[in-house]
Amino acid sequence: MKMKIEAPPHIKNLTPYVPGKPVQEVERELGLTNTVKMASNENPFGPSPKALEAGRRFLDNVHIYPEGSGLYLCQALSRHYGVAQDQVILGNGSVELIEIAAKALLVPGTNVVMSHGSFTMYRIATLAMNAEAREIPMANRTHDLEAMAKAVDSKTKMVLVANPNNPTGTYNSAATVEKLLEAVPDDVLVVIDEAYKEFVKAPDYRSADCLLGRHSNLLVLGTFAKAYGLAGLRVGYGFGHKELIAILHKARSPFNTSSIAQVAAIAALEDGDFVKMVAESNDREMKRVCAALSGMGFSFTPSVTNFLLVDVPMASSECYRKLLMEGVIIRPMEGWGFPNSIRVTLFTKEGNDRFLKALAKVTGR
Ligand SMILES: *Cc1c(COP(=O)(O)O)cnc(C)c1O
Fold first, then answer.
1. Which of 47, 96, 156, 281 could link 152 by a cystine bridge, Cβ 3.0 to 4.6 Å?
2. Same structural domain, 182 and 325
3. How far is the CA of 193 from the centre of ligand 1 (A)?
4. Average pLDDT, stretch 272-300?
5. Burial class for 73, CB neighbours closer than 10 Å (0-12, 13-18, 19+)
6. Backbone angles phi and psi of 156, in degrees to 5
7. Looking at residue 288, what is its pLDDT?
């Protein structure tokens, strides 16, 4: 039977997001066991135990629709971060909030300013709205916020900045983010996506939520997917001016976060000890893995996150395939603009040692 539905060119030409390969799939395809997935910046310690328990307890209620806007989670976020409740919006992962913003603001002929070498979902969300993705080169694998501000023109609707950035692991200081907001006209939305903020120890880094009182064109994103270990539940949040949030609500589907995700996230938010433990382990392992990589003569981009962009002496995809055969799943970065680099998520000590050993083997070091 011939399928005759035709998508418009901007959809037809879209390359879908390529996620990290699941463990089960790799093991089935290659006949391996005991593989370790270090490909999606997931939490090696699993979910926050408190979140898990709250989610389990709530399972009996899944025949009931969730609270539409996630009122109780919005209240919890409002208290935790000190922003007003009407300045909070939830997303099915923070990625959905980028899509909601794109849907709400973009029409053909408009453009979005982003870095070349940032989160590939920014480009996809922009192109899906038939708008232009204006990709600005980075400086030292760090967003060039000045160049990004200069690239804004009368057709620019959004500026998208991951801070810290995925996949480079670099960050922009609070002072430079503030300058960006001062430079960008206030009818252009600036999205600061802070998916890894909980991991950052750099003293000159700060969440942009402290700028919400001064900039009505700011949307600050956070997620429960990384430090809180709830990637599979799909729950993220955005903070912005209440009238901006009201616009985003119009472009959101009614029950975009599940009831389980909402209760689990509320419990996770109260589990500060878990996040602290995760961040401290990450910090220790980051120092250890970096020292080991340097010792083996690898160059990598210094990272404030839970992942590292490592340069390899072969094509990224070749290194990926070779590491796969060793049972180590990482992410090749060709598609993100780094043809000779791999992105590896830090794990527990055992997982990281597996990676280091496998990398040494496949590169002959
Ligand atoms: C992981 C990640 C997110 C979070 O995605 P979720 O949709 O919340 O799972 C957002 N932005 C960046 C840059 C990320 O790396």
1. 156
2. no
3. 8
4. 97
5. buried
6. -80, 130
7. 98
Claim to verify: residue 251 and residue 280 sit in the same structural domain = no
> Ligand 1 pocket, 115 CB below 6 A?
no
CA angle 233, 238, 243 (to 5 degrees): 140
Task: Answer with the one of 270, 292, 313 that is the final residue of a domain.
Answer: 270
Question: How much is the pTM?
Answer: 0.97
Contact 354, 327 (CB under 8 A): yes
Are 66 and 29 within one domain? no
Q: For 42-58, what is the mean pLDDT?
A: 97
Residue 261 beta carbon below 6 angstroms from any ligand 1 atom: no
pLDDT digit string, tens, across residues 207-239: 999 999 999 999 999 999 999 999 999 999 999
How many other CB atoms sit within 10 Å of the CB of residue 318? 14
Asked whether residue 1 is assigned to any structural domain, the reply reads no
CATH code for position 140: 3.40.640.10
Spatial contact of 57 and 49, defined as CB atoms under 8 Å apart: no
Domain range for 79 is: 49-270
Ligand 1 proximity of 166 Cβ (cutoff 6 Å)? yes
- CA angle, 158 as apex, 18 and 336 as ends, to 5°? 25
Is the Cβ atom of 231 under 6 angstroms away from ligand 1? yes
Q: How far apart are CA 83 and CA 237, in angstroms?
A: 12
What's the CA-to-centroid distance between 112 and ligand 1, angstroms? 18
